[in-house]
Amino acid sequence: MASYAGELSTQVAPAVRVKSLHRSFNEAGGVLNGLDLDIAPGEFVALLGRSGSGKSTLLRSLAGLDRGVAGTGVIEVPEKVSVVFQDSRLLPWKRVLDNVTLGLRADDASDRGRQALAEVGLAGREKAWPHELSGGEQQRASLARSLVRDPQLLLADEPFGALDALTRIRMHTLLRKLCEVHQPAVLLVTHDVDEAIVLADRVIVLDGGVVRHDARVELDGRRSQADPAFARLRARLLTELGVEDDHDAAPARHLDPASERAAS
Amino acid sequence: MTTLTGNPSAPTRSLAEAEDVRPTRRRLGPGEPIRFGGLFGIVVLLTAWVVGSATGLLDPRTLTEPWTVLQTAGTLIENGRLQESLVTSGIRAALGLGLGVLVGTVLAVISGLSRVGESLIDGPIQVKRSIPTLALIPLLILWLGIGEPMKVITIALAVFVPIYIHTHNGLRTIEGRYAELAETLGVSRSEFVRHVVLPGAMPGFLLGLRFAVTSSLLALVVVEVINATSGIGHMITLASNYGQTDIIVVGLVVYALLGVTADAVVRLIERKALSWRRTLAS
User: Fold this and answer.
1) How confident is the model at residue A107 (pLDDT cuts 50, 70, 90)?
2) What is the domain partition of chain A in residue ranges?
3) Which residues of B touch A83 (CB under 8 A)?
4) Which residue out of A102, A147, A149 would a mutagenesis test of the B interface target, given it has the greatest number of B Cβ atoms within 10 Å?
5) How far, in Å, are A93, A104, A142 from residue A109 at the CA level?
6) What is the CATH number of domain A42-47+80-263?
7) Bridge partner list, A32
8) Per-residue pLDDT for A65 more than 50?
């Protein structure tokens, strides 16, 4: 709603401020129950949570897409907000460049579109139809469409959820690079704990419609899954999500019945 | 084992003699398509006409000889009657088609984009759809006389229904996620209509257009046969009064050519406008 550009306290004012946010789809119970959340400018926040924990509801309310959903609370977001959806959502009847510059009101819209496409590694594909691109390329084009608008806040709803594992790793690298260049505040909804740790400055676990866990990712440099700190954070987040860690535990469980039998 | 003993001699054999033993089943499906098979039936019919006329099996009063038809066509072109009729009919059909397409599209967009529009427009059109347009002609004659406006409006009335139905359907089947995307990109309503709604409804619109072209020609024939003083239909009606089957056949051929041409034009538009889909299909 409010833009902070004119305020003196620009440096400390958060990019996103959410206060006691309630949202409910029916009488039975709320999806969000008094959620509070601040996101600093340029901060990358990953939002984890089980299905039905209200991740997408929060993201949609920040994007202003939850018309008609009952609720109360205060949401302050920057003026320029871009959304990346799980599907690339490119208009099939527009060429890639026209998709990227759709609704962009600037004299140099097409130049900026080209530049954005080059940034995501799609230079030369401006004239392609969306269906001619692979899944990863489509999602890159949709990233370009978001970034060409210079967003102060980037909302991403499981943007890599439909991609294969290898493409996903490549997209992680690309997204981190792009965020370093453009410095938007980011709220990334995901259910992939590793993805959250690799990408984010801060990981938030949502449960029962409130923030249940708020962890800063303090891993320097390249974030490797081999790093013990990575593994600790991962285990903690999985516990918060109510998932018993992990692959290591599996063999032990297999042994249990045998040992029980031996004991009896 | 037996195949093994046969093997040493196999490389020396030429390819044509190479063994090809396999179980076969009797074919039940229609089999391979025939090249230019579509034209075959037409050629048979034309041949029957020529042979029938030449042997006298076909009475010229029932159906004129093909060569007479060609001659008559030549004469009609020479004295300019055919072109004149064709232009009159063509303009009528084009005006009616244009008016109907415009009205149908505008109504479909209004009805597709606003709930108020839908509740006002959709009901009456569904009612109109159940009344054959040609049944409205007596009323239209009372209101508009028997001049050109009546003819053009009859054609337009026949045209706008398929355009409306298919465009409206095309609009409604545009996925909501594209509207959501447009909202997040902050596009204006007019940009939304131009970049999302109209291209998204284009496949439906073009399907409607193909139906509309057929409807317009049907309505054209009827309004021209009922009470016209010019046009192909008028030419045919006159010829019917004087028993000139040759002129009737020429008129029918012209109608056929109009129909085929119009359909070809729509298909050309379809190929251009839906190139984003064509590449998908191929």
Assistant:
1) confident
2) 42-47+80-263
3) 181, 184
4) A102
5) 19, 6, 16
6) 3.40.50.300
7) A23
8) yes
pLDDT in tens, B113-172: 888 999 999 999 999 989 988 899 999 999 998 888 999 999 999 999 999 999 999 998
How far apart are the C-alpha atoms of A251 and A259, rounded to whole Å?
A: 13
CB B198 within 8 A of CB B274: no
Give, in degrees to the nearest 5, the angle at Cα B79 between B77 and B84. 65
Q: Which of A91, A125, A145 is nearest to B276 (CA)?
A: A91
Nearest-neighbour CA in chain A from B122: distance (Å): 25
Q: Please indicate whether, in this complex, the C-beta atoms of B184 and A92 are within 8 angstroms of each other.
A: no
Domain map of chain B by residue range? 69-281
Please, what's the b/e burial string for B198-227 (b: 16 or more CB within 10 A of its CB; e: otherwise)?
bbbbbbbbbbbbbbbbbbbbebbbbbbebb
Averaged confidence pLDDT in chain B = 87
Of B87, B85, B121, nearest to B105 by C-alpha is B121
Can you read off the two tokens belonging to residue A235?
């285990």
Q: Which has the higher per-residue pLDDT, B229 or B219?
A: B219
Task: Pick A8 or A51 by higher pLDDT.
Answer: A51
pLDDT for the residue numbered B30: 84
Token pair listed for B127: 């009612």
Q: Does domain B69-281 have CATH number 2.60.410.10?
A: no
Q: At what angle do helices B198-226 and B137-144 cross, to 10 degrees?
A: 80
State which amino acid sits at residue B281: A
**Beta-carbon count within 10 A of B269 CB:** 15
| Cβ-based neighbours of A230, under 8 Å, separated by 6 or more | A197, A219, A223, A224
Check residue A107 and report its DSSP letter: T
The two three-digit tokens of residue A212, written as one number: 């249940």
Given CB atoms, is B195 within the 8 Å cutoff of chain A? yes
Those of residues 52-81 in A touching chain B at CB distance below 8 A are 63-65, 81
What lies within 8 Å, CB to CB, of B172 at 6+ separation is B112
pLDDT of residue B1: 42
Task: Please report the sign of the dihedral spanned by the C-alpha atoms of residue B20, residue B23, residue B28, residue B29.
Answer: negative
Residue closest to A147 by CA, chosen among A168, A119, A125: A119
Q: Helix-strand-coil percent breakdown of chain A, rounded to 5?
A: 35, 20, 45
